[in-house]
Write a structure and sequence with these properties.
The protein is of the alpha+beta class. 25% of the residues lie in helices and 28% in strands. The protein has four helices and ten strands, in the order H-E-E-H-E-E-E-H-E-E-E-E-E-H.
Amino acid sequence: MTTLLDPITTLPPEFRPLRVEEYHRLIDTGVFDGTHVELVGGVLVEMGPQGDEHMGLIPFMNHLLVRLVGEDYVVSPQCPVIADEISEPEPDFAILSKRDTRVTGKPHDALLVIEIANSSLRFDLGEKARRYAGAGYPEYWVIDVKARSIHVHRDPHPDGTWGSLEEVSSGRVQAVAVPPVVIDVQDLLTFG
């Protein structure tokens, strides 16, 4: 992400958010060819280039998650999820039940949503966390590359808050919504 500001909280009061269906029509016309944007809170957010640690963690995490969940779940890397009528973020990973072949934004489609954050930490812990909670996704993790920790969000509320927030910097983290996912934080964050 190219900005440190939370784009949602800095909008003028007369702003009309872009809706997901409008966003899809724009995608279909090729307006965004050559750029990487995502829709969050009705705002188009340009995603900055991934740093070396972020890029290194993506294949490592993908391999790890696929191995951990086996045939019981589906790992969806870097694919959009619909959080509400004005948000379609693209988390680094979404884990779905085996019966789901794509994320539609209905509660419980994505059982675990994971973002890897370096420069995007404030946005991932702010507006994205609010959108994922409001959508009812049961669990959201933010892997903080700089702090070498995982921010674990559980118990989503419709108002966009989480009932449980924990930052884990040592030991293991087990996903409540996807029990086979157990990650040793130090192994993950010392990768690369």
